[in-house]
Structures are given as C-alpha cells and as structure tokens.
C-alpha cells in the first residue's frame, strides 16, 4: 500500500510540475526537456518515449492552433508519444490522449475582461497523461499496455494565427471549418486521437480516453468535478460509471454524462465546403450541451464515429472533461410525417410500425412493444389540439380515426391512456397564465373528479395562507389488493414566473407560463392512473400552483421566512421561487412516506437554467450541494443560497435538491438513519418544451414507462 501511495504521489508531482508551472517554464520545448530527463528511468520500467515537433502534415490541426508561435523557437509545439509495455501477456490496452495547450489566449477570438488569467493550466490533460506514466514506471502493472499521446502547443494571437472561417484539413483528409479559435482543445487532440484509433485497431482489448480542460460548460454544470462520457461501445462496459465509482473510493469524484445524436449533429457540415464544423461561435460555457458536443466533433474528426456498436470494429472511447476539477491559479422526434398528413387534410390515418430487423440485442428501445408505443405516442403528439385552440376556434381535433396496426388491445389501451395523460400535462403546462391561472387549474381538475374517483383517486383542493392561488393535490388511496410500492410525486406549479422582485429582464420572462410543467406532469400521471389502474401501486401527488408576481406585497431578498416545520429560510433571490413553493408540500410528502409501504419521493420541476446548459443522463448530488445552503448567521437555519441566476451558478441544477432535502427534513432520512427515504429529483427545464412547441410529455412518459406500464403490459 505504501508503495502504491508513493507511486501515485510521484505521478501527481509530475502532473503538477507540468500543469501548474507558468507558460514560460513549461512551454512545449521545456516540457520536452522535462520528460527527456525521465527517459532513462522510464525505459527501465518498460516505457518508450518519442518526442517530435508539431508537424503540419502529421498534426495539421494542432499545428494550426500553434501557428502564431511557430516562428519563435522557445514556443514551438511538441508532440509526445509514450508506450508502456508490461512483462508477460497483455489482456488490456488503454490509449490516453491529453490536451496540452501551454497557454490559451483564445487566439484571434481573444479572451477579454481578465478571463485569460489562469489559462496556463490548459495543459492539465496532457500533464495528467505524463503523471500516469510516472506512476506506471513505479508500479509496473502486469497485463496492462498503455499508449500516451500529448500535443503541447500555445494558442496565441499574431499575424500567423489561425482564424474563424478557415478550413483546415485533418491528417485523415477531413475538411474542418473553424467557428471559434478559442475552441482549440478539440483541434489539439483530433489528429493524435486518429493515431490512437489506428493503434487501437491493432491492440488487445483497447479503450481510448481523452482528458482535457476543455469547456467552461463542464465547470458551470459540475463545479469542481470531472465529467466523463462514453461512446456506445464504452457505455456497454459502463466505463464512465466505473471511473466515477473508482474516483469516489479515493476522493477523486466525478460525474457522468451521456453523448447523444445531437452532439454529433451540431458538428455536421453546413455547406459543400467542409466535412465537419468546429461548431460553436460562442464560448462553450454559454452553449447548450457545451461539454458534450466537443466529443461529437472529436469522434467525427478522428473517424471514431465509424467504430460504434454496429460497426465491424467497435472501439470503446471515453472523454473526461477536467475543466472544473483540474484546479485554478489560486428534441424529441419532430412528428413531421404527421404534420404532412394534417396539412393534406387526411382524417383517417393508419399507423403501421415495421419490424426492427437490424436492431442489435442491446437496443432496448427497439425490442418488444417499445417501437409501436413510441411511434403511436409520436403520432398522437402531432395530433394534439391545445386547450385554448379547442375553446377559442372550431378546431376540436385533427383526425376522425387513428388506426394502430397489429397493436393488440392491451398495448392500444395503454398507448391511449398515456396519450390522455400527456394531453392533461399539455393542457395545464402549455395553457397561458390567464387560462391556466391557479383557480382555473383547480376548475380543470374538478372536471376530472368524477372519473378519477371512479378509478380510486381522491382529490383535495385548498387555498393556502390568504392567497387567491390554491394549492392542489391528488391522492390515490383506494388501491385494490395488496400494495407493494408507494410513489409520492411533488410537482412545481408556478403559473407564470416574472422573477418577482428579482425581475426577469431583457426578454427573459418570455415563455415562463411553462414554469408549471412539473405539476402538470403530476396531473397527467394521475390521468394515466385513472385509465390503467395498475395493481399494487399507491400514488400520492402534490401540486402547489402559485404565481410569482411583483407588487408592493412581493417577497424580497434578505427576508427570513419560517417553513411549516419551523426552519428559518433566508431568501437570496426571488427568481429561485421553485424550490420555495415545493418546500412545505415536500415536507408533507416526507411525513406521509413514513407511514407507507416501500415509499419513494420524487420532485419534478422546470427548476434551473443550469440544467438547460448542462443536461446529461444522470447527475449526482454531493455534500457541497447541501453545504452551500447552510445558514451563514444566527438569523437563519438555511439559505436559499444563490444571488445569481441558476444558469450562471456552478452546480446550478444540483444544489437546489440539497436545499429541498434540508428544508423538508429529507436530509434526516439518509442511508444511516432509522427511517431511510429514497428521494429523486428530476429537473425538466430543458425537456418540457418551449413556447413554440407543444409540451413534450417529458418526463411523464418516462415515469409512466417506469412505474405503470410494466404492471399492465406483458
């Protein structure tokens, strides 16, 4: 153990020597000298080293990044190749590609307003690879072969600097259109990543990694944590998850994100001039999915996109963005075919879903009833008529009959039930702030009382605390037969969000009538329950509907509000109202859960702009997401925390869950408590749909497919 600790420490020392040193002490030639000094010891441990100047033919993209400095010898770029070969047989090969920008000025897209400060750390990815080999040299693990690739260049501005709109040719012949010279990291790695790909095809059980301080979006999304993401073959072995688990064991935590089709799509060419776009013309920190689409670019530029699960040569590839963790200086299917049918005024539609003959066994979405269910829900999505169109025009529906070919009664009935739930979700969620003000939502739900009660759903609607806006919740109590699971679902229902005293300005209020989509999801879930009536599942729903307005009585920053359980809450920003309206009903849900069989609590909310900037598959709540909400004086027990919009706060979509757990008392029901209560928070700000679209049905369909449909479909 002591030997391992020393080896790790020596590896970290190399990492820090290279990564933390200033851009003159660790310019590319001096990094080469530093590594050359280790060559003798590394050779003895089975490590070979090759260091070459950045070459316009072999490394054209990295060369372009460093072009402004190529005439100045002390700053000329270097590429380092390392290979560790163990004694005995090899059973695993990893190929590490590290970003090595020795100083990032932004180039022609110059970093201004002081943000260039600290950019000497932009070589931390390459430094990490070097440190990894230092550790290898001491521990000499058997069975593991390792290749390392590091391109050290300086991204400077000058008369020879590369520019936006340039078309660069990669080593494999792809034409790359530059969008922003400050997105240089993906260019620095693209050509050596292609070399790693070719090497992987000749290696035993290979897995490629890129490690880079790549995007401000990763810092915005995950604070000081690394975020890792897998391509398809890597996801099959759950590499990003296993990295996270391994890091947790030794205090090097990381998060996991998922790469999706749109992360490739945004890099596709816009004209005949290029094969791939470097895409963003603005900083990654302000781009949606800013830390995932660069991996899409690197896959395309290096041809790794040709090595997916369905290829002849699948190659697992994992990208780790360490921008947050390296340390500082101190949409759904469009429904377009159905829109075409509607435009042609065809009123009788037959939906036929063919067999997925080429689907691989792990494509769960293509198995069993899933393709038919998805296709039918997509059709019904396009055929939906909004409530205000139904009420204000002669258009009541867009079709007379929709045939579902070879669906079977159970699947057809389940599809219809889910679509009816989604319709309730859209009626409430998309209705404007007058049509779906809180009292009128109550009226809408009252119209469903008879049908819901016939299905065993009880509903109670009350007016809280002298407000005109009621708080509504539906409770499914009359479950026939034994209960094996209880869900308690709390949905945010802000009927219009002006921001309150922290007023949304510059057009930011537009579309905020959709801020009730979380509560609309709960109502839609109960509509599905009323039709399918699954056995064994008991559900409680809580929907506080309130308008966040601005007048002389509005709540203000610095106010201390006392929650129903006596906790004193200091308000930091009135535009963080979602967590405030969920607080008390979440506490009620907690108390109810303590009396129920196998309970699980959920909150669903269009809560943070940070989720729009950052969304991935799953995020993890950590200690710091609680810590930032702790009281800072004797006046309060808990801070509502942020004085900035959530979209500009680090970990902006995770710490609200920490607040909710603290204010509701759920923080007292962790794994080590006498009464552990499972609690899951779903932020649907990115997925619920905008003002120009129907509500997407997210996450309603996901929740229905997880908890209801398995009980009613074979």
TrEMBL record:
Q: Report the SUPFAM superfamilies cross-referenced here.
A: Zn-dependent exopeptidases
| A family per Pfam | Peptidase_M17
A single Gene Ontology MF term assigned here is: metalloaminopeptidase activity
Q: What is this protein called?
A: CYTOSOL_AP domain-containing protein
GO cellular-component term (any): cytoplasm
User: InterPro entries in the record, alphabetically?
Assistant: Leucine_aapep/pepB, Peptidase_M17_C
UniProt xrefs under PANTHER family: DIPEPTIDASE B, ISOFORM A, LEUCINE AMINOPEPTIDASE-RELATED
Keywords assigned by UniProt? Aminopeptidase, Hydrolase, Protease
Biological process terms from the Gene Ontology for this record are: proteolysis
Q: Superkingdom of the source?
A: Eukaryota
Task: List residues of the Cytosol aminopeptidase domain.
Answer: 180-187, 573-580
Q: Family per UniProt?
A: Belongs to the peptidase M17 family.
């Amino acid at each position: 153990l002591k030997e391992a600790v020393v080896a790790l420490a020596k590896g970290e020392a190399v990492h820090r020597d290279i990564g933390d040193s200033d851009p003159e002490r660790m310019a590319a030639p001096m990094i080469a000298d530093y590594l050359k000094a280790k060559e003798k010891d590394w050779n003895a441990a089975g490590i070979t080293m090759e260091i070459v100047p950045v070459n316009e033919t072999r490394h054209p993209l990295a060369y372009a990044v460093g072009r402004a400095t190529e005439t100045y010898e002390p700053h000329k770029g270097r590429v380092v190749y390392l290979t560790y070969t163990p004694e005995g047989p090899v059973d695993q090969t990893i190929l590490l590609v590290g970003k090595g920008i020795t100083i990032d000025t932004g180039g022609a897209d110059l970093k201004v307003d002081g943000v260039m400060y600290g950019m000497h750390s932009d070589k931390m990815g390459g430094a990490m690879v070097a440190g990894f080999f230092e550790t290898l040299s001491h521990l000499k693990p058997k069975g593991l072969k390792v290749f390392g690739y590091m391109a050290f260049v300086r991204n400077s501005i000058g008369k020879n600097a590369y520019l936006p709109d340039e078309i660069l040719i990669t080593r494999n012949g792809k034409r790359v259109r530059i969008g922003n010279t400050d997105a240089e990291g993906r260019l620095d790695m693209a050509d050596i990543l292609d070399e790693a790909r070719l090497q992987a095809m000749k290696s035993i059980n290979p897995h490629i990694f890129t490690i880079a301080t790549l995007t401000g979006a990763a810092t915005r999304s995950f604070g000081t944590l690394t975020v890792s993401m897998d391509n398809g073959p890597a996801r099959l072995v759950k590499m990003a998850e296993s990295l996270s688990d391994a890091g947790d064991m030794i205090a090097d935590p990381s998060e996991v994100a998922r790469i999706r089709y749109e992360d490739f799509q945004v890099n596709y060419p816009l004209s005949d001039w290029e094969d791939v776009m470097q895409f963003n013309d603005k900083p990654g920190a302000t781009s949606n999915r800013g830390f995932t689409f660069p991996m899409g670019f690197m896959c395309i530029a290096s041809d790794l996109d040709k090595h997916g699960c369905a290829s002849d040569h699948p190659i697992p590839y994992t990208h780790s963005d360490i921008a947050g963790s390296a340390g500082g200086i101190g949409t759904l299917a469009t429904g377009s075919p159905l829109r075409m049918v509607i435009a042609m005024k065809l009123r009788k539609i037959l939906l036929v879903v063919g067999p997925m003959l080429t689907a691989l066994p792990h494509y769960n979405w293509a198995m069993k009833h899933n393709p038919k269910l998805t296709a039918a829900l997509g059709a019904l999505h396009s055929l939906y008529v909004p409530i205000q169109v139904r009420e204000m025009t002669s258009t009541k529906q867009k079709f007379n009959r929709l045939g579902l070919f070879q669906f079977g009664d159970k699947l057809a009935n389940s599809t219809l039930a889910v679509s009816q739930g989604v319709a309730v979700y859209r009626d409430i969620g998309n209705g404007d702030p007058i049509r779906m003000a809180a009292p009128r939502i109550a009226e809408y739900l009252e119209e469903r009382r008879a049908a819901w009660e016939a299905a065993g759903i009880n509903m109670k609607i009350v007016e809280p605390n002298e407000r005109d806006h009621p708080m509504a919740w539906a409770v499914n109590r009359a479950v026939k037969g034994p209960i094996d699971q209880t869900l308690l679902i709390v949905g945010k229902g802000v009927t219009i969000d002006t921001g309150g005293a922290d007023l949304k300005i510059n057009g930011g209020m537009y579309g905020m009538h959709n801020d009730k989509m979380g509560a609309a999801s709960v109502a839609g879930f109960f509509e599905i329950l009323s039709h399918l009536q699954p056995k064994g599942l008991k559900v409680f729903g809580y929907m506080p509907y309130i308008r966040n307005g601005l007048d002389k009585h509005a709540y203000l920053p610095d106010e201390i509000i006392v929650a129903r359980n006596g906790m004193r809450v200091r308000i930091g920003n009135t535009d963080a109202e979602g967590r405030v309206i969920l607080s008390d009903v979440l506490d009620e849900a907690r108390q109810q859960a303590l009396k129920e069989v196998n309970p699980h609590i959920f909150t669903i909310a269009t809560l943070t702009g940070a989720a729009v900037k950052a969304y991935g598959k799953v995020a993890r709540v950590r200690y710091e997401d609680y810590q930032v909400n702790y009281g800072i004086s004797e006046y309060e027990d808990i801070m509502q925390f942020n004085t900035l919009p959530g979209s500009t706060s680090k970990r902006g979509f995770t710490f609200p869950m920490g607040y909710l757990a603290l204010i509701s008392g759920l923080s007292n029901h962790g794994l080590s408590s006498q009464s552990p209560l499972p609690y899951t928070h779903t932020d649907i700000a990115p997925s619920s749909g905008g003002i120009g679209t129907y509500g997407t049905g997210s996450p309603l369909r996901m929740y229905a497919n997880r908890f209801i449909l398995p009980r009613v479909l074979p």
